[in-house]
Amino acid sequence: MDQRIIDFLQNNEILSFAMQDSQEVYIANAFYVFDTFDFSFIIASDQNTKHIKLSIINPCVAVNVYQGKKIALLKGVQIKAKFINATKEQEKLYYQKFPFAKFQKGIRIYALYILWTKFTDNTLMLNKKIEFQRN
């Protein structure tokens, strides 16, 4: 993965992700930690939420992280990911950054395993987007 994408993802902490089943689509926001070893977002949520239930039914999710309020300053990623349970190591990473999550009842830690991403950085005036495809 290009270092510019990694830097961008490490310098942010809120994502939006969309999921669907055979009848509907849904979107949710989550605080995240970026796992640079597995190229995954680590998130926490109650297992009984609609977005978690839908992600379990269909683990193919879309993710968006962006920053900037003007087109010339826009930076962001569009991502295809697989919703999975986090590893013990990923849980530790999440709790290191968000220790308060340990005390919330019903919270579980999940990972959004990046399969593909497209990075836009208008501050670099790039004509071409930077992409990453997992092998």
Summary tags:
135 residues; 19% helix
Helix content: 10-25%
What characterizes the major β-sheet? Answer: 8 strands, antiparallel
Helix-strand sequence: HEEEEHEEHEE
- Strand content range: over 45%
| Rg from Cα | 15 Å
Query: Can you give the mean pLDDT?
Result: 93
From the spread of the alpha carbons, the general shape counts as globular
Q: Uncertain regions: pLDDT < 50 for 5+ in a row?
A: none
Please give the number of β-strands.
8
Class from secondary-structure proportions:
alpha+beta
Number of helices: 3
* Spatial separation of the terminal alpha carbons: 11 Å
Descriptive report:
- The chain is an alpha+beta fold and 135 residues long.
- The chain is built from three helices and eight strands.
- Strands 1, 2, 3, 4, 5, 6, 7 and 8 form an eight-stranded antiparallel β-sheet that branches.
- It is globular and about 45 Å long.
- The protein starts with a helix and ends with a strand.
- The relative contact order is 0.23.
